[in-house]
Each structure stands twice: as structure tokens, then as C-alpha cells.
Design a protein that fits this description.
By secondary structure, this protein is α/β, with parallel strands linked by helices. It has one domain (12-229, 256-286, 316-331): Rossmann fold (3-Layer(aba) Sandwich), CATH 3.40.50. Helix content is 36%, strand content 15%. The chain has 13 helices and twelve strands. It has helices at 21-32, 50-53, 58-61, 76-79, 126-147, 160-163, 182-187, 191-210, 234-244, 260-273, 289-299, 321-325, 333-347, and strands at 12-15, 36-41, 62-66, 84-87, 152-156, 213-219, 221-223, 250-252, 254-259, 278-282, 285-288, 309-311. Helix 1 packs across helix 10 (260-273) and helix 5 packs parallel to helix 8.
């Protein structure tokens, strides 16, 4: 599609991976706040992206662009005329990624939406499915921002880029100064954390060298209602598994939970208030799996629920005070859970008869530091 006319008085921004879980809520928020929005998707004509065109204000102020983060030439058109870019597109693995040299395609690149992986991913999958899309995709987006005179770059990273840090003082609450140790992640095959850490470091360093205002947000496990009802994203599959139950065993580790709408609010808040080369942790509640189960059972007693849980001596405390001091006001956990379950019910995901499986990242015990 063509960009909005240059005479448009609305502030113009681009959201990569616009059809994804977080990105779609950000698009919705931006439209409601009077922004003209460009959103990149794999295929603007794909039925799974039709919901974006039905958002309030979309007909007048949303344009979808076909783009691939690994193809630089597809990025300049959607970035044209934009003051800022929200880089949300990134893969989240469902299957086990065994080695960092890769060539397979079971994970969709854009919007943190994944296909089902039923077996362990072959030996040569990590680079193409995780490292290259995350790292080289970020480099391409940064380069295109400079080429199109974009002023602000807001990156969605992850708390995974902050928690795998064996040198962090024991008992000290993690804040934005905590970075995951890349060598530790590589040795322990924590490829998602390695990719997110590397991409975030690249972006912040690029901003300093090239005059681009770069800000990163590190969300925890993102729950909340769905705007896209055709495909279930990875973190929502985790909550669906908890509710429906299944054959997999979960570890009773602590999870940093945040509402998808609060992530969108945080991104817009950073766009308007944060300084350059800053990062922010974004999580409301840190809950053990058993505590989360009890809350859900009290709210919705008629579901089966996961019953295979083993205790794990693993708990990481972190703080989002920096984001709250900027004005972030997250929702209560019960509201997030209620709206999540209602959304899954409406979309029919809780009525599907196929066995429910847990994404790999949430299945295996977390590495002990």
C-alpha cells in the first residue's frame, strides 16, 4: 500500500509485525490516540490479518505493508514519513532449538506468532529460526530507520535479556542494569535469551553511534485478551495449557506476568517520555505456577487444569519501578486473567478437542544459576 499523504496532520509511526499479539494491541492503541500507523505484515491479504483493518480508525489511518525483516528493501516503504518505529516483530520458539546453526521454517517471523512444532527441531534450525531473524532483522530495521530519517526506535526485547546473569549478586532484585550473560546462554543453549540480548545490545549501540533515539522494553510473560482469533500466540498457548491441562510436566518456577494492553501502554509511554539509550523492565506480578493455578481455579472452577507440576528451587525477583516512575499504571492480575479466559472462550480455543501441549520454553526446568 502507498503511505498516507504527506499532508496528513497526524503523527506517523510504523509497527513491525503488526498482526502479532503485542503489535496488534499497540496498533489499536496508536489509532485510538490519533496516530497514523503503518504496520508491516507478511501478507496484507492473508485472512488472519483482516482484523487489523476492522480496528477503530483503521480505514482512515492504518496502512498495511508487505515486509520481511530479513529483506532490507521491503522496509523503506513502510518507514517512509514515519517519525518513529516500534520494532515488535520477533520469533518466539515453541519447539526445542538444539543448535545455533540453522535452516528450517516452523516459526513465523512476524508478530511473535508461531506454528505448532510437534518434534524437536532438527540440528540446523536455531540460526534461521531464532538468531538470524532476531539479530539480522534488527540490524535491517535499524539501517532502514537511518535511511528514512526515522527519529525514534522503540524495541520490544524481553526479560530473558536480563535474568540469565550468574554474576548478579544473590538476593539482589534485578533491574535494568542486569543483562543476561551471552556466553552463559550459549553454553546452556538458551537461544531465545541469547538472541534477545544480542539484538538489544546491537540496537542501543547503534543508536549511540548513529544519532537514533533507541529505547528498549523488556516484558515478562505476556497474557491478556486476543485481537487475532485465528492464530494463538505462544504465551497465550501457555495459559490455555494451564487451563485445559495435558500430558506435559511444568516446573513450579516464578513467572513475571504482564498484560498485553499494559505492554502497549508502556511502549507508547516510552515513545513520548523516555530518553535515548534507555531500557525498561515491564512486569507486574511474579507468581509461582501453583499460585497462578489456584487463582484460576477459584475464578473458573469448571476447567480441568494442568496437574503435573514439579517444584523448582528457582526464583528471580525483578522490579519495574523505573517504568512505573515514568507513569506506567498496569492492570490487576485478576483482570488480565479474566479477560484472557473470556477471549479464549470466545475464540473457541478452550473447546478444541486436540491434546493441548506446552511450548518448550515453559516445559523444561530453568537453568540454575
Amino acid at each position: 500500500m502507498e503511505p498516507l499523504p504527506s499532508s496528513s496532520p497526524l503523527p506517523r509511526v510504523c509497527v513491525t509485525g503488526g498482526g502479532g499479539f503485542i503489535a496488534s494491541w499497540l496498533v489499536k492503541l496508536l489509532l485510538s490516540r490519533g496516530y497514523a500507523v503503518h504496520a508491516t505484515v507478511r501478507d496484507p491479504c492473508d485472512p488472519k490479518n483482516a482484523f487489523l483493518k476492522q480496528l477503530d480508525g483503521a480505514q482512515e489511518n492504518l496502512r498495511l505493508f508487505k515486509a520481511n525483516m530479513l529483506d532490507y528493501d521491503t522496509l523503506t516503504a513502510p518507514f517512509a514519513g514515519c517519525e518513529g518505529v516500534f520494532h515488535v516483530a520477533s520469533p518466539v520458539p515453541e519447539g526445542k532449538l538444539v543448535d545455533p546453526e540453522a535452516s528450517a521454517s516452523s516459526i513465523l517471523l512476524l508478530g511473535k506468532t508461531c506454528l505448532t512444532v510437534t518434534d524437536l527441531v532438527p540440528h540446523t534450525t536455531v540460526q534461521k529460526e531464532m538468531m538470524t531473524p532476531t539479530i539480522e532483522g534488527t540490524r535491517n530495521v535499524l539501517k532502514a530507520c537511518s535511511a528514512m530519517n526515522v527519529k525514534k526506535f522503540i524495541q520490544v526485547s524481553s526479560v530473558a535479556a536480563a535474568v540469565y546473569n550468574p554474576g548478579w549478586p544473590q538476593g539482589k532484585v534485578r533491574d535494568e542494569s542486569s543483562w543476561s550473560d551471552k556466553e552463559f546462554c550459549r553454553e546452556n543453549e538458551i537461544w531465545y535469551a541469547l538472541a534477545k540480548t544480542e539484538a538489544e545490545e546491537i540496537a542501543l549501540e547503534y543508536g549511540k553511534k548513529n544519532g537514533l533515539q533507541v529505547i528498549s522494553l523488556c516484558p515478562g510473560v505476556v497474557f491478556g485478551p486476543l485481537l487475532q482469533h485465528m492464530v494463538l500466540n505462544t504465551t497465550s498457548k501457555v495459559l490455555v495449557y494451564i487451563i485445559k491441562g495435558g500430558p506435559d510436566t511444568m516446573t513450579n518456577k516464578s513467572w513475571p506476568i504482564v498484560d498485553v494492553r499494559d505492554v502497549a501502554d508502556a511502549l507508547l509511554l516510552l515513545y513520548n517520555k523516555a530518553g535515548s539509550s534507555e531500557r525498561y523492565l515491564c512486569s507486574l506480578d511474579l507468581l509461582d505456577m501453583k499460585d497462578l493455578l489456584e487463582i484460576l481455579k477459584n475464578m473458573y472452577p469448571n476447567y480441568s487444569y494442568a496437574d503435573k507440576i514439579v517444584d523448582a528451587d528457582y526464583r528471580i525477583e525483578m522490579t519495574s519501578h523505573r517504568l512505573k516512575n515514568l507513569g506506567w499504571k498496569p492492570r490487576k492480575l485478576e483482570e488480565t486473567l479474566a479477560h484472557s479466559v473470556e477471549s479464549y472462550e470466545e475464540a473457541g480455543f478452550l473447546q478444541v478437542s486436540e491434546p493441548c501441549r506446552l511450548p518448550f520454553l515453559f516445559l523444561v526446568p530453568t537453568v540454575q544459576e
